[in-house]
Amino acid sequence: MKYLITGGAGYIGSTICSVLEDNGHTPIILDSLITGRPEFTKDRIFYRGDIADKALVQGIFEDHPDIQATIHCAALIVVPESTQKPYEYYRENVGKSLELFHSLHAAGCKRVVFSSSASIYDTVPGFMVTENSPLNPTNPYARTKMVMEMVLKDFCQAYGMHGIALRYFNPIGADPKMRSGLHVQNPSHVLAKLVEVQLGRLPEFLITGTDYPTRDGTGIRDYIHIWDLVRAHLLAVADFDSVFERAGNPAENYLVVNLGSGNGVTVRELVTAFEKVIGQPIKKREAPRRPGDSAGSYANADLAAKLLKWKTELTVEQGIADALQWGAIRDQVLHYS
Fold first, then answer.
1. What domain count does the chain have?
2. pLDDT tens-digit map of 208-250
3. Domain residues for 47?
4. Is the Cβ–Cβ distance between 227 and 175 less than 8 Å?
5. Separation in Å, CA 6 to CA 69, 121, 125, 134, 185
6. Which of the residues 121, 141, 212, 223 is marked catalytic?
7. How confident is the model at residue 185 (pLDDT cuts 50, 70, 90)?
8. Does the active-site annotation cover 141?
């Protein structure tokens, strides 16, 4: 089967392409390469352009009328940057997704899987959230994800489309076959920064925020190996109609599903696990919270087990090991200019 992947030249999108290919499917990539990498498009069907380009999207479906569903990953994703550039984030994430969804409707593509984010949840007692937990996005990036969900839900209700919003928790690691991984040179993700310190690219790791109401004062997250994350996308698109049947075919044609391990890990605990994997302490110090950060949350993943027949299989330690392996070879795979 063919599937359109917007942002398919990015960290998550390219790994989704790999899991689709490994299971006999054909990914079709639409990416502007503003943040994505051309190396991740090699030997794949690739259209370079903007998701808001209606003629381009129409042309993709004319070339490939047998596309079964779209997985929409394209977005700007850096939380601190979003607090400094809210206009750019709303334009790129919300405005252009609005046009993309309209183009998909016009092209007759009725199935959409959307890359959403657990950052839209409010902080709740105990920090574990279900899909029905209250929402309270604390930064422009997270607010764009919430609005994008609202737009997709409205389109599904009005236009007969069907949408599945997958709320990601915290992806870590790399493709276990090292075909792709985190590609930005100055990453903001916590594990990526630990890897940068270990590889000598950063002088120390900053534990940003030590006064959260968690068990050790640092933020709590649900770290999920990226290969587990992309397997959920495979299950969502390859069994799309059955997922809705298992959900009772809701009248709004729209589903929200958490993708997480179900385990909360604090930043200090992640650092401890990292040091265990590398076999030595890492240089670190405490620092104030970053703009837009929150105490965090972790997933109740029961609905993913029910609807997608999915659960995580890989450990945090495996994610750390794969991130380290990718970090060591990244500059050989990617040709930065």
1. 1
2. 999 999 999 999 999 999 999 999 999 999 999 999 999 999 9
3. 2-183+217-263+294-333
4. yes
5. 11, 24, 36, 29, 21
6. 141
7. confident
8. yes
